[in-house]
């Protein structure tokens, strides 16, 4: 029986893909750290040049979040019909052009539009990169690989603060954006020039088309050959020319309607998945606390302990514990055996113990005791990053993974860190005690741990190997095999299928 070689990408290997995605993620968060730095957004940076008040300055971060939250589900939904690897290339191209434009911005509104487009560009990457990593990571190291990817968030922020300060003070804030754009450009280009990779659960469109016989065309050919009626063919071609515009418009409208209908069906599947909902609800509570910590933490520490270098101390603890804790969480879950039940066990236990340590830290009157307890608490709390995203990817069928990550991202920001900072500010204004305010905030970690604890007892099934509704034929099933292979593999097809290649 004839055989055909599965398309492979010679240069790409799983480890190289992970490294590339980690570098891209690092650049994404380096940008977010840079715009928060004094060198880029201080009195001599954006805020000073455009004479922004604090409200306008705060809108810049919200503008980024608007683009991210709106575009994430759109990119995830488009992955059903457009190659996800190409969508990553589109997103990175938007990001590259947007950061370059930010360097040329001339007032508040222009920089706000630029930041919103940066969020749009990042949306495709954060929705689609984790499923690619999940596909190609060794089975025993899936959470570790995810943890390495998410470790780039705190480390990227840290580099961004330093990078923004150095570039801004020596060359000006505009150069910070231009350099970022140049660094991302090769990755954006590679998204279009490299052979596209395919995600598990998504059938390449070219293979679907190859399996559909052109019966209409062959039927016309036979009829004309047997009857000798060239007029029939001419009439049909003339009719096609006249109606081509109407057909194309109709097809576009139908395609958009089908895309929206599929999105609604997929959203319904997510909302009816108890495991997914429990995971996201716990993550919202967790992110509510972490978001407020990141915004108010240095000010709270300064006021409670009279610590003049609170920015440096809080930032240092967060960076170190973020990197070490995130990696440790992934390694521990893989050591325990990465299952959904074990993930919920780790999420609930580490979040509860982390909450106890953080609560005890802010009760402590001694600054050294605070530093020790808070460091342990942050280490435990950050260890959730790998497991929580592992659950997002494995509690749904493969074709829903991009949307699962996208909607989780939307939920944890929309109901978590976006409202938490202003709400904590309102609380502090009303009680005027930073210690009490932060203690009340920290208690929210306990219900988050409780929600994840419930997940241990909910019936869960790892659906990574599920065959989706789009994968019914043998050729379609073969496409679920990740194309990142160290060596070329072969598979057998029927003679009819082989001829299509």
TrEMBL record:
It comes from the Eukaryota. InterPro entries: MFS, MFS_dom, MFS_spinster-like, MFS_trans_sf. The keyword Cell inner membrane does not apply. Residues 17-462 form the Major facilitator superfamily (MFS) profile domain. The chain crosses the membrane at residues 60-78, 85-106, 145-163, 175-194, 270-293, 313-336, 343-363, 436-458. Keywords: Membrane, Signal, Transmembrane, Transmembrane helix, Transport. It is found in: Membrane. It holds the Pfam family MFS_1. It is a multi-pass membrane protein. Residues 1-36 form the signal peptide. GO terms for cellular component: membrane. GO terms for molecular function: transmembrane transporter activity. Belongs to the major facilitator superfamily. Spinster (TC 2.A.1.49) family. This is Sphingolipid transporter spinster-like protein, putative. The lineage of its organism: Eukaryota, Viridiplantae, Streptophyta, Embryophyta, Tracheophyta.
């Amino acid at each position: 029986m004839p055989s055909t070689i599965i398309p492979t990408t010679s240069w790409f290997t799983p480890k190289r893909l992970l490294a590339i995605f980690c570098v891209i993620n690092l650049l994404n968060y380096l940008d977010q750290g840079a715009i928060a730095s004094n060198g880029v957004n201080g009195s001599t940076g954006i805020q000073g040049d455009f004479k922004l008040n604090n409200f306008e300055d705060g809108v810049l971060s919200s503008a980024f979040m608007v683009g991210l939250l709106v575009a994430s589900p759109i990119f995830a939904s488009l992955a059903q019909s457009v190659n996800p690897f190409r969508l990553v290339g589109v997103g990175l191209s938007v990001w590259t052009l947007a950061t370059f434009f930010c360097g040329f911005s001339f007032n508040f509104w222009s920089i706000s539009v630029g930041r919103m487009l940066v969020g749009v560009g990042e949306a495709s990457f954060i929705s689609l990169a984790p499923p690619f990593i999940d596909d190609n990571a060794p089975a025993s190291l899936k959470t570790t690989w995810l943890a390495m990817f998410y470790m780039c968030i705190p480390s990227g922020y840290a580099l961004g603060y330093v990078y923004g300060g150095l570039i801004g003070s020596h060359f000006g804030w505009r150069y910070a954006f231009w350099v970022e754009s140049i660094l991302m450009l090769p990755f954006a280009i590679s998204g279009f020039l490299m052979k596209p990779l395919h995600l598990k659960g998504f059938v390449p469109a070219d293979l679907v088309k190859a399996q559909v016989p052109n019966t209409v065309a062959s039927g016309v050919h036979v009829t004309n050959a047997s009857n000798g009626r060239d007029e029939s063919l001419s009439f049909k071609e003339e009719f096609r020319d006249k109606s081509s515009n109407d057909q194309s418009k109709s097809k576009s409208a139908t395609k958009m309607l089908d895309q929206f209908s599929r999105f609604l069906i997929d959203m319904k599947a997510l909302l009816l998945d108890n495991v997914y909902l429990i995971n996201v609800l716990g993550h919202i509570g967790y992110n509510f606390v972490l978001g407020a910590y990141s915004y108010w933490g240095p000010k709270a520490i300064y006021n409670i302990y009279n610590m003049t270098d609170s920015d440096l101390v809080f930032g240092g603890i967060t960076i170190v514990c973020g990197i070490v804790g995130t990696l440790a969480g992934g390694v521990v879950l893989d050591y325990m055996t990465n299952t959904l039940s074990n993930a919920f066990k780790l999420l609930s236990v580490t979040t509860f113990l982390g909450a106890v340590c953080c609560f005890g830290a802010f009760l402590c009157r001694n600054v050294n005791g605070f530093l020790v307890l808070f460091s342990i608490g942050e280490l435990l709390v950050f260890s959730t990053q790998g497991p929580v995203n592992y659950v997002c990817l494995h509690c749904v069928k493969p074709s829903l993974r991009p949307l699962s990550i996208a909607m989780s991202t939307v939920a944890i920001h929309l109901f978590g860190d976006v409202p938490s900072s202003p709400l904590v500010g309102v609380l502090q204004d009303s009680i005027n005690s930073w210690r009490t305010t932060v203690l009340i905030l920290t208690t929210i970690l306990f219900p988050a741990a409780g929600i994840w604890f419930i997940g241990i007892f909910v019936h869960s099934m790892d659906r990574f190997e599920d065959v989706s509704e789009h994968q019914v034929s043998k050729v379609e099933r073969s496409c679920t095999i990740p194309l990142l292979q160290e060596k070329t593999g072969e598979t057998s097809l029927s003679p009819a299928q082989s001829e299509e290649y």
